[in-house]
Description:
Layout: E1 13-20, E2 26-27, E3 33-40, E4 45-50, H1 56-64, E5 69-78, E6 86-90, E7 95-98, E8 110-113, E9 117-120, E10 135-145, E11 150-154, E12 157-167, E13 172-178, E14 190-200, E15 204-217, E16 232-249, E17 265-267, E18 274-276, E19 281-292, E20 297-303, H2 304-313, H3 323-331, E21 335-342, E22 347-357
Parallel strand pairs: 4-6, 13-15, 20-22
Antiparallel strand pairs: 1-3, 1-5, 2-3, 3-4, 5-6, 5-7, 8-9, 10-12, 10-14, 11-12, 12-13, 14-15, 16-19, 16-21, 17-18, 19-20, 21-22
Amino acid sequence: MAKRSSDATSSEEQENGYLHGISPLKISRNNNKYFNGKLQTKHRTFNFVCYAPEKHAEYQVAEKVDSPVKITNIKYSPSLIDSTDLDIQINRRSRFNVMKKLDFKKKKEVEKANGDAVRSFTKISDIDITTSHVMYNIKGRVLGYIEEQKEVEVYGLKKLKREAIVADDTGRIIVTFWENQITQITENKSYILFYLSSRNNTSLKLTTTQKTEINEIEDLTDISETLIVPNTSNISGKILQVQCTGRKKCPSCDKNVEVQDGAEKIKCPSCNLKSHVKSLKESIFTRINIHDHQNAIHRLICFREPLEIFLATREKSYLLENLDELEDFLLDLKHYVKVTCSKDSDIITTIVTADGQL
């Protein structure tokens, strides 16, 4: 359930924030005038409906000039988008005040959809890692899958689930996709994801909801290497299995390119620019299974950065150019390894060789 303002009392709830998408006046089934919009607070964006048409002009002006506002004596109601969330109802008894400033800024990046509705977007690095059941809209690229599609039981019902890593230019986060939404995404393609809900049991994730909308967009570039990791854990053990997958990327548009064996130059099919093959960027996606001292097997994922740092400390950076040799090197390590990974996400953030042998 969404968190309410810490300044609100049981008799007078309030929210501070910025207005988006104030609609024209509308007529309800009961022949009453109203308008709706969105209120962007510090940690989330509420949908609201206002049954005080005489205040319509005030709301329009505040939205137009980006004024911070405080709305007092409001009511919360179950969201029409997500039954676990809240919407806001405003009436004639509610008070509307323009404030001098707030400790956060109005989001400028918005997307118009479904007529007059305006949806703001949150950068991945701005997602609040301390809260749950907060709705977010994000733009990002699907970097890869953490697991194969599997069937799980949810409230007594069996549902299909698959987790993927989604990134923008500020960070990476794990998103859980359910049922038919799984087939709506493809690895290495970019999407707008509307109505994702945050979950923070032991680590931060986003999950799709029944109202989630998935729209493919032009590929995003400048994807961040940073994973949003609020909690971490350490695992020590012997590398049991490993699989390294490399992808060549255009240095200009950052899109995948297929390189034929022996080719020295290649023209990117997306931006049509020709490059030397040796100048192409390469991403590495590695699956590592580690066997620990308690006889448990941990199935982990490692991206290029922590692997690159680990190899550099052992003067083995050249192995990044030959993934078969890299796999052999990791399997043949005599000492066990100690990795730090995000709890419940199985993504390695650091990797070192520990003292001792198995």
